[in-house]
């Protein structure tokens, strides 16, 4: 196999256009996804994100004939507190273990400290990864478990997102 030499563009204007296109492409990649402003350091438990989280879990459950989970405000409250605690500590499931599920949760999955992702992308990609582990995976067993309720919690700190899903 022969190595190719440097790209030679025939005309200076063509070279300039190619460089401009490359610069725009690199600029666009550097800014995607957009990082939230520092003012977004918060518990990002907007109802739409929590509903999206429950809906995504229920899509996976439906694909294997499991009944949908209903949202629980008690579980959402616990998940919101747990995800903020675990995000700050940098230790998954720490709050769940220390509080024995807060007296409301029987199981938990968690997506901790995803940097430069939108909340819904963390939920989608994180759940997809858990599901991909299949029946032998710990999280798959929780997602398809004998639960009837779910509560999600989201925490955003600058450009870093964490999501917890608690079940009973």
Describe the structure.
It is a single chain. This protein is an alpha+beta fold and 168 residues long. Helix content is 47%, strand content 18%. Strand 4 and strand 5 form a beta hairpin. Helix 2 packs parallel to helix 5 (119-132). The longest helix is centred in the first third of the chain and has 19 residues, at 12-30. The protein starts with 11 loop residues before the first helix and ends with a strand. The model is unreliable at 1-43 (pLDDT under 50).
Q: pLDDT average, as an integer?
A: 82
Helix content: 40-55%
Which radius of gyration do the C-alpha atoms yield? 21 Å
* Largest sheet properties: 5 strands, mixed
Low-confidence stretches: 1-43
Total number of beta strands: 5
Structural class of the secondary structure composition?
A: alpha+beta
Distance between the termini: 60 Å
Tell the overall outline: globular
Beta fraction of the residues? Answer: 15-25%
Question: Which terms would index this structure?
Answer:
single chain, 168 residues, alpha+beta, five-stranded mixed β-sheet, 6 helices, globular
């Amino acid at each position: 196999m022969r190595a190719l030499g440097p790209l030679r563009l025939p005309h200076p204007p063509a070279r300039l256009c190619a460089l401009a296109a490359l610069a725009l492409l690199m600029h666009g990649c550097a800014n995607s996804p957009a990082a939230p402003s520092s003012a977004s350091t918060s518990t990002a438990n907007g109802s739409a994100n929590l509903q999206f989280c429950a809906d995504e879990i229920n899509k996976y459950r439906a694909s294997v004939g499991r009944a949908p989970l209903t949202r629980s405000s008690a579980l959402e409250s616990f998940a919101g507190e747990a995800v903020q605690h675990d995000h700050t500590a940098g230790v998954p499931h720490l709050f769940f273990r220390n509080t024995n599920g807060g007296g409301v949760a029987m199981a938990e999955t968690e997506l901790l400290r995803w940097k430069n992702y939108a909340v819904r992308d963390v939920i989608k990609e994180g759940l997809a990864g858990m599901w991909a582990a299949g029946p032998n995976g710990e999280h798959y067993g929780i997602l398809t478990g004998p639960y009837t309720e779910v509560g999600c919690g989201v925490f955003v700190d600058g450009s870093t997102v964490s999501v917890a899903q608690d079940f009973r």
